[in-house]
Design a protein that fits this description.
two-stranded antiparallel sheet; homodimer; 16% strand; Arc Repressor Mutant, subunit A; globular; 2 domains; alpha+beta
């Protein structure tokens, strides 16, 4: 399965992971969020090759995640800003960062955020209707309007067609 | 920079993205969460080659994200379960899925979750202290105990050393 075919999977995890499913892309978005937003500063921060950064930035701009803003005319210099879609990825990356802090950072968190409320940020992914955490055991899947069967969803589609809410583990089926 | 060097960056986004920064891994975790948890069912759902799935599962088990559980003796069959670390990735993937629903799914969400509370799940990444969303503009970065300067954090480290809370965009500094 090629990368193009992969994004054809009727799954929003596949489609969004395609956006950040690259070693550099999450770090570029991290940097732009932190105001490290010019080509040269990105190269200097990341130690990435200029060719690779050019390619990644082009993809992010084409994908509607970043946009370019000229900030100097002679010579022309531009910086990169998050679009609305890009901004909405930041909380997801912050949640991912907190996972890395907990499970992959024996020396402690490399970077900490203070939230506007004054607390050192600890995140939860919650259901906005009730405010409770979206823990794995609290989620009951069903096919959505864009669902279809195919590579990447073949068994899921079968199960969702049979039982609208199938339990995560067979022996836990009510 | 090699993949091994990439995980050496003092950044929890780099370290956690390394876990799911692969086209297949988020979908394998999605499937195991949904109870599609045996080797053969994963192959059938994903259309992934057996060799590639074997490699990905081995990495996820070695990384403490999945563990194997035998459920039949003759012939030996095993299924894959999420560890605690793996379970904690699921809400992050669900938040990523919701981003993909909004920004990459013109036909509508392929999969919808009903939350335990009865609402169709819409997620937010929130600060657990105040319950408000961890929007980009509400986050003030500082160096943490595991922070250090090096490729991947060179400019960040400079800026955090100079100004404990530097604003994301210069002109938006209060």
């Amino acid at each position: 399965m090629t990368r193009a075919e992969h994004t054809e999977i009727a799954c929003s995890i596949a489609r969004s992971a395609d956006v950040i499913g690259d070693a550099w892309t999450p770090l570029i978005l991290r940097d732009v969020h932190l105001g490290i937003d010019t080509f040269n500063e990105l190269v200097r921060d990341l130690g990435i090759s200029r060719a690779l950064l050019t390619a990644r930035l082009r993809t992010l701009v084409a994908g509607g995640i970043l946009h370019e803003q000229p900030y100097q005319e002679r010579p022309v210099r531009r910086r990169y800003l998050l679009t609305e879609a890009g901004s909405e990825l930041i909380p997801v990356l912050v949640a991912l960062m907190r996972w890395g802090d907990r499970w992959r950072s024996p020396d402690g968190a490399p970077l900490v955020f203070t939230h506007d409320c004054g607390a050192q940020l600890e995140t939860a992914v919650v259901c906005i209707a009730c405010g409770d955490a979206a823990h794995p055991g609290t989620l009951h899947p069903a096919a959505g309007p864009g669902g279809r069967s195919g590579p990447g969803t073949r068994v899921i589609a079968e199960r969702l067609a049979l039982v609208p809410e199938f339990a995560p583990q067979p022996e836990e089926t009510p």
